[in-house]
Amino acid sequence: MNDVLYILNAIVLGDLRRSGPKSIKYNFLRYSIDNLQFFRRIKLRYDSNNNRRRYIPADSCKGDRPMIRNVSHCVVAAAFLLLPVRLMAGGPPFLCLPVDGVTSENVQACTELLNSKLAARPGRLDDVKLIQRTNQWYLAFYMKNDVRLSDVKAALEASEFSIPRDRLHLFGHVILEIDARPASRQALLSGLEALPHVSVEETKTQEDLLLVTVDMPYPVGKGRRDLESVGWDTFRRNGLNSNQSTKPSTPVTRRQLPSYETIRELVSKHNAGLKDIRWSTRYVCRPHGGVAEPGPAAREVGPNNSTEAALPVGKWNVEFTNGVTEVCDVFNFDGGGHATVDEPQRTSRGTVVVNGGSVVMTFNDDRVERWIPVGKRFVVEHWFPGSRFPTATPILGIAELTP
Omega before 390 cis (within 30°)? Predict the structure, then answer.
């Protein structure tokens, strides 16, 4: 409070311009003495014994109202100058995430779906916008409160749209919500710190979860920092990062950013589970979220294509050993593979990635399937929940192309 008093004194008495703010600290005694003059200038009574100010009744200074108004403006302006830097930076942060399944024909339907589903959630501040960058669509909205990845995933559930977690690369500050055994926590934190471009800023425990705030490179902007700036290609550590000295500040591409899958797999290796990730409004006036790594152009099954790197485009009937049957429709869209699945009690959508001699499908309802070609059919391995892939024993099935 004394610093505020010194600078307010200097502004009203006109000394700040002459001597600068640094000399104010050195003239402590002078400005303490000038308090009496200062408060007389702005029509306040000053008690030197207890350093309290008492307003003079309004009737006693009617003739000086213009002067009081002018001085008050100076005082208010000075007070704003003294606000913390983070508050002065001002403005809410905004979240941006890639969305698969969006086209120019259904973009309006996806926008309405997100707005209706997220309207009841506390994390959204403004309407959701969908923005296309090259072949990838992004959702973006300003945040009022913290937002979890599961919030957005739930809003898109049972629709043709999804967040491509297998291609999701994260930037900036992210809070990892981890279910970790106490014995493995130190090793887990060391593992996270060892990831390229990842710095562990803060850790704390909340109920049974370990909350780890990680700090990663931020987007390199082009003179603007708003919703229309999403879809960045270059990132680096800068003034928005909490600890700039622990990692190099060289520019990185979206592919070099830490991926969601990389972090999830590292957490799993330490006998822990990544329950969710969260973006916090604690870090204001900046973008949060992630970008999508461009998916490789998958090739469709055909006589001139190798089975080893082929996308099984078409509608398939799958029969599992537990008696469940499903219909899986695989298709190529925007250079990447996608699939929809229908069962008697389940409908979902997912992404399809060719991985050597197999095809891995990651569905939005936390299920993973690996398809292995055998002649004209596929052996299907099914994992639920998806975090059990590929170590746990899967449910087996056979997929056959429908006529």
Answer: yes
Per-residue confidence at 124, pLDDT binned at 50, 70, 90?
Answer: low
Please report, for residues 70, 150, 188, 284, 402, the alpha-carbon distance to residue 145 in angstroms, rounded to integers and kept in the order given: 38, 14, 28, 11, 48
Q: How far apart are the first and last CA of the chain?
A: 80
Among 169, 160, 174, CA closest to 97: 169
Tokens 């698969």 identify what position? Answer: 100
For the chain, what are the domain ranges?
2-82, 94-292, 299-401
Which CATH class name applies to 299-401? mainly beta
Dihedral (CA of 167, 172, 178, 184) sign: positive
pLDDT tens-digit series, residues 216-232: 999 987 555 678 888 88
Has residue 19 got a pLDDT over 50? no
Q: How far apart are CA 174 and CA 370, in angstroms?
A: 30
- Pick the closest to residue 44 from 8, 1, 83 (CA basis): 8
pLDDT digits (tens, 9 = 90+) for 324-349: 999 999 988 766 789 999 998 899 99
Backbone angles phi, psi at 316, to 5 degrees: -120, 140
SS3 for the chain is CHHHHHHHHHHHHCHHHHHHHHHHHHCHHHHHHCHHHHHHHCCEEEECCCCEEEECCHHHHHHHHHHHHHHHHHHHHHHHHCCCHHHHHCCCCEEEEEEECCCCCCHHHHHHHHHHHHCCCCCECCCCEEEEECCEEEEEEEECCCEEHHHHHHHHCCCCCECCHHHEEEECEEEEEEECCHHHHHHHHHHHHHCCCCEEEEEEEECCEEEEEEECCEECCCCCCCHHHCCCCEEECCCCCCCCCCCCCCCEEHHHCCEHHHHHHHHHHCCCEEEEEEECCCCCCCEEEEEECCCCCCEECCCCCCHHHEECCEEEEEEECCCCEEEEEEEEECCEEEEEEEECCEEEEEEEEEECCEEEEEECCCEEEEEEEECCEEEEEEECCHHHCCCCCCEEEEEEECC
